[in-house]
Design brief:
Oligomer: single chain
CATH architecture of the largest domain: Alpha-Beta Barrel
Number of helices: 16
Bound molecules: iron/sulfur cluster
Mean pLDDT: 94
Number of strands: 10
Radius of gyration: 20 Å
Strand order of the largest sheet: 1-4-5-6-7-8-9-10
Order of helices and strands: EEEHEHEHEHHEHEHEHHEHHHHHHH
Largest sheet: 8 strands, parallel, barrel
Shape: globular
Number of domains: 2
CATH class of the largest domain: Alpha Beta
Helix content: 40-55%
Strand content: 5-15%
Distance between the termini: 52 Å
CATH superfamily of the largest domain: NADP-dependent oxidoreductase domain
Structural class: alpha/beta
Length: 371
C-alpha cells in the first residue's frame, strides 16, 4: 500500500487536456487511452468540475466501463468560480457526482487555493462541508490543489491540519523558478507530513518540446527516451509523492508515458546530473510561464485568447520562427473564436486569477507588437 492506505502507481491520468474532435472531447479516443492505462496497472484519474466536459467524458470512458473499486477518481471544487453562496459552491459537488456517475470520490480537492481564491472556501465554510461528505462516505480523502507562495501554503496547512494531501505544480523547470517556487512549496507540504500529488510535471506540455539546447542534453544522455519522459520521471522520483498527473491528449502520449513509467523505480545519480544540466540550460532562456490552465479566460470580459497568444510568443522566443508562431496564434486564438492580444482593454482581471503570476497585460502588449 502507498500513501493514505491507497495502492496507487506513480502515474495519474490528468483529464484537463483530453483529445478533441469537432470542438468537443473525443470520447472514443479517451476510451482507448483509459484501456491502455488500466491494462498497464495504473488506476488514478484526475478531473475537475471546472474542466469543461471532462467529468462527463470520464463517466463514459471509465466509470461506466470498469468496476468502481478498480480505479481512483479525483475531482475538485472551484468555489471561486461564479459562486455567491455556500449552496452554489456545494452544488458543484452534486454536479460532479452526477456528471461522473462515480457514486463517491476517492480524492476530493478544494481547487486552486491561494491568493484571492482561498477566502471563498472560508466564506462558504467548504472545509466543514468536505468533512461532512467524508463522514457520509461520499469522499474518501480530502485535500487541496494550490498555486501560490510557500508562505501561504504554510498558513493554510497550519489552519487546516485535517487536510490529508496537497496537489502542487512541480517540474524541473519550475523547481527554483521564483514565480512558482516548486521546491519550497514541496518542502512545506512535506514538513507538515502531507503526501503530495504532482500536477504540471511537463509544464503544460512545454517540457515535451523544450529549447533545442535542452533537448540536446536530454537526448544526448538517453537517445531512446522521449524528452517529456525526463519531466515525468523527475517528479516521480521525489519522496512523498502519491502520484504524478500527466495531462495526456492522445494515444501516443499515453503510450510514451506508459513505456517508461510501467517499470520506473527511480532516477540514477547520472540521470539526476543530466536533469541538473537541463535545468541550468533552461534557466538561461526567458519564457512566459503560462501553463494554459485558462483560469484567466473565465474572467476576461473581452474573450482575449490569452494562453494561445502566450503559446505563440513562447514559440517565437524558443524557435525564433515568426511564421510558426503566427500559425499557433491563428489556430489557438482566432481558430477558437477568441480575440487577439491587441484587443485587450487592460482591465487586469486576468492577473488576479493567474496562478503563474504572469504580467498578462504587459505580455499581451508584446505579443500584439510581435505577432
Ligand atoms: S486585462 Fe485584457 S486580457 Fe486581461 S481580463 Fe482584461 S481585457 Fe482580458
Ligand atoms: S495566463 Fe495564467 S491564468 Fe491564463 S492560461 Fe496562462 S497560466 Fe493560466
Amino acid at each position: 500500500m502507498g500513501y493514505l492506505g491507497e495502492e496507487i502507481k506513480k502515474l495519474g491520468f490528468g483529464l484537463m487536456r483530453l483529445p478533441q474532435k469537432d470542438n468537443s472531447i473525443d470520447v472514443e479516443q479517451t476510451k482507448q487511452m483509459v484501456d491502455l492505462f488500466m491494462e498497464a496497472g495504473f488506476t488514478y484519474f484526475d478531473t475537475a468540475w471546472a474542466y469543461a466536459g471532462s467529468e462527463d467524458a470520464i463517466r463514459q470512458a471509465l466509470v461506466e466501463r470498469y468496476p468502481r473499486e478498480k480505479f481512483q477518481l479525483a475531482t475538485k471544487n472551484a468555489a471561486w468560480i461564479n459562486c455567491k453562496t455556500r449552496e452554489e459552491a456545494i452544488a458543484q459537488f452534486e454536479t460532479s457526482l452526477k456528471q461522473t456517475g462515480a457514486g463517491y470520490f476517492d480524492f476530493y480537492l478544494l481547487h486552486n487555493l491561494g491568493e484571492s481564491r482561498t477566502h471563498f472556501f472560508d466564506d462558504f465554510d467548504m472545509w466543514s462541508f468536505v468533512q461532512e461528505k467524508k463522514a457520509e462516505g461520499k469522499i474518501k480523502h480530502v485535500g487541496f490543489s494550490f498555486h501560490s507562495t510557500p508562505e501561504e501554503l504554510e498558513e493554510i496547512l497550519e489552519k487546516h491540519p485535517e487536510m490529508e494531501f496537497v496537489q502542487l505544480q512541480i517540474n524541473y523547470a519550475d523547481w527554483e523558478y521564483p514565480a512558482i517556487q516548486s521546491r519550497r512549496c514541496y518542502e512545506v507540504a512535506r514538513k507538515h507530513g502531507k503526501p503530495v500529488i504532482i500536477m504540471e510535471p511537463v509544464k503544460g506540455g512545454m517540457l515535451a518540446n523544450p529549447p533545442e539546447s535542452v533537448q540536446k542534453i536530454l537526448k544526448g544522455a538517453e537517445p531512446d527516451q522521449s524528452v517529456a519522459s525526463w519531466a515525468v520521471r523527475f517528479a516521480a522520483n521525489l519522496e512523498g509523492v502519491i502520484t504524478v498527473l500527466s495531462g495526456m491528449s492522445n494515444v501516443e502520449q499515453m503510450e510514451d508515458n506508459l513505456s517508461y513509467m510501467k517499470t520506473f523505480t527511480g532516477l540514477t545519480e547520472d540521470e539526476m546530473h543530466t536533469l541538473r544540466n537541463a535545468q541550468e540550460e533552461l534557466s538561461r532562456i526567458p519564457l512566459i510561464p503560462c501553463t494554459s490552465c485558462n483560469y484567466c479566460a473565465k474572467v476576461c470580459p473581452m474573450q482575449i485568447g490569452i494562453s494561445g497568444s502566450f503559446t505563440a510568443m513562447n514559440y517565437l522566443n524558443l524557435f525564433n520562427d515568426v511564421a510558426a508562431a503566427k500559425h499557433q496564434q491563428e489556430w489557438l486564438v482566432g481558430g477558437h473564436g477568441l480575440k487577439l492580444a491587441s484587443e485587450c482593454i487592460k482591465c487586469g482581471k486576468c492577473e488576479q486569477v493567474c496562478p503563474q503570476h504572469i504580467a498578462i497585460r504587459e505580455e499581451l502588449a508584446k505579443a500584439a507588437d510581435a505577432l
